[in-house]
Amino acid sequence: MAPPRNVVKIAIQMPGAIPQLIQLDQAKPLAAVLKEVCSAWNLNDPEHYALQYADGHRKYITENNRSEIKNGSILSLSIAPDKEAGRLLNALQSGNREVKREALSRLALLAPDLTFAGEVINRDGLQRLGAIIEDGDDLGEVLAHGLRAFSELMEHGVVSWETLSSNFVKKVVSYVNMNLMDASVPQLALGLLESLALSSPPLGQLVKQEVPLERLLVHLQVVNQPLQTKAMALLTALLQNASIADRQTMLDYLGRRNLRQFIYKNIIHSPTPLGDEMAHHLYVLQALMLGLLEPRMRTPLDPYDQEQREQLQALRQAAFEPDGESQGSGLSADRRRSLCAREFRKLGFSNSNPAQDLERAPPGLLALDNMLYFSSHAPNAYSRFVLENSSREDRHECPFAQSSIQLTLLLCELLRIGEPCSETAQDFSPMFFGQDNSFQELFCVCIQLLNKTWKEMRATQEDFDKVMQVVREQLTRTLALKPTSLELFRTKVNTLSYSEVLRLRQTERMHQEGTMARPILELRERLKPELLGLIRQQRLLRLCEGTLFRKISSRRRQDKVWFCCLSPNHKMLQYGDVEEGATQPSPESLPDKLPVAEMRALLLGKDCPHVREKGSGKQNKDVCELAFSVSYDAGEEEAYLNFIAPSKREFCLWTDGLSALLGGAMGSEQTRMELELLLAMETKLRLLELENVPIPDQPPPVPPPPTNYNFCYDCSIAEP
Predict the structure, then answer these.
(1) I need a labelling partner for 405 at 20 to 30 A (CA). Which of 233, 435, 584, 688 fits?
(2) Residue ranges of the ELMO domain (predicted)?
């Protein structure tokens, strides 16, 4: 019989005693449970004892958290938290260094428990620990345990960090600035200062004044990873508390001291694996560095600002006046103004006054900064982008300015510029530490990617949003790979072409629908022959219906019409000329016949004789895509029946049908699409009864044969 829900089976142990296995009734007061446990071990004064978890954080069991006890938990009987706190605090008054060290070590071990911490704080334990830290008589283990215990007690939030004195903070700072043999002391002092800086802005300012950035750089360059991590933690805490102007000043100083290069070379690419805490601090540092772009992102362009107007003119001149020679020299003011407006439209601004395009914030002035950076740091790519699109048809040109504005906004969204830092995130991008001006350099790569994708999609102005969706997907997928350098990012994102994005979408959709599981793939393979037979039947029926084709004369004029169809018994191709505008003739009225048995091969495109004989103009290219021929035996010579399909669909239907008649595979794009559609429909119909049932990738293993077959019943033996 199962025990009641409010009863859990646990084990309780005590050093030197046989463990007790009991059923703990959660409805019974904890004092009564302790009394029974102490009675079983013949212990007096049960109020002097308490239950603790035997492993892990050794948390004390109280009436408030006893519901967390699970079946099978192992508890230990130990001294009650109030008695233990009093004993340890009394030991701190001992003149014996070893006794004090052991007491501080025990305090640091138990301080994470809220119940014990409350008892220590109520007995002025923080003041006693603070005195030990401020005295600093022992710079070894005693001080290290004291710092750890003090930090753990403060983390509970029972006492405000604001209550700490400036003298105490300066003393802790001195441990950071000292060159100590024991690395644990500066490591713990850095951790304490980080918590203090994040919790109390006034004391954080004091820490910023007392801890020089140079000293933090020294700690970052040590090989001790925990000390390195705590130094990075304090650095990011100070940067978070600083104003935008102070943060910029601090990051400029760190940049001059090559902090970025050091992080990239010795932390990110360190042979020691990167810890979760360091990864979080690098994420915060990256967010703070990119956050410096937020003011520009949220500031719209001011059309009356002379500097910003000059920047716009510089952008125009870099594209259309690369040698500094003004095309408008010698023109009237109105004519020059009209010329500038036309050039701004060629640059891709939607208004003749470009200031109107940049009035929206975000991305605000950040978009203008990116365009200027691209034009000055990659002038050849910039000129090629603008001039290449200027020479396209109006509908097919990729507008540089509009693309830059939307791309800047997209990058700000993907990199979460302007958003508060997460307290747990670790998703930093290593390439931002491997490149100066990383955001602007990333923009230069992405704007060229956008132009490449635009051409691959053969996009028009109406497709602008679709192109941006594809670019978003390209960037999202590539950033998720966390490339370690901008060059690697460039390589990976450029291999992710539009066709590759479509393929990945299709694959993911199939995985989501469960159609990529091995049993499903086997089912699809079994269904293929039947469905291909269905498509073959449809193609032959279409050939039996017949189609009107045009003949092309030597002058490339499509001035003659002829009709061709397949006989109902699939043994003859019947064809003949018809009058323009005449109704579709009956098969019996067609004068010419070609037996299917005499057909030898099907030729496509450039292999067709009527295409080879013609020139290579644009019209011939269009004809080539729709041309096909059937070769057949005409006595001792080989003859051809030449076709020019009226449309791409008819081309696919006829070439598939003729291939089927010749016993070949139907390889047109139309067949592939229809087969995929039929397979998807048929598979879903077959799996209707298995909806929401997970299908394993592998079949269950076949069990081994039995060792004997004595269980088999022989029906031939009659029972007595």
Answers:
(1) 435
(2) 307-479
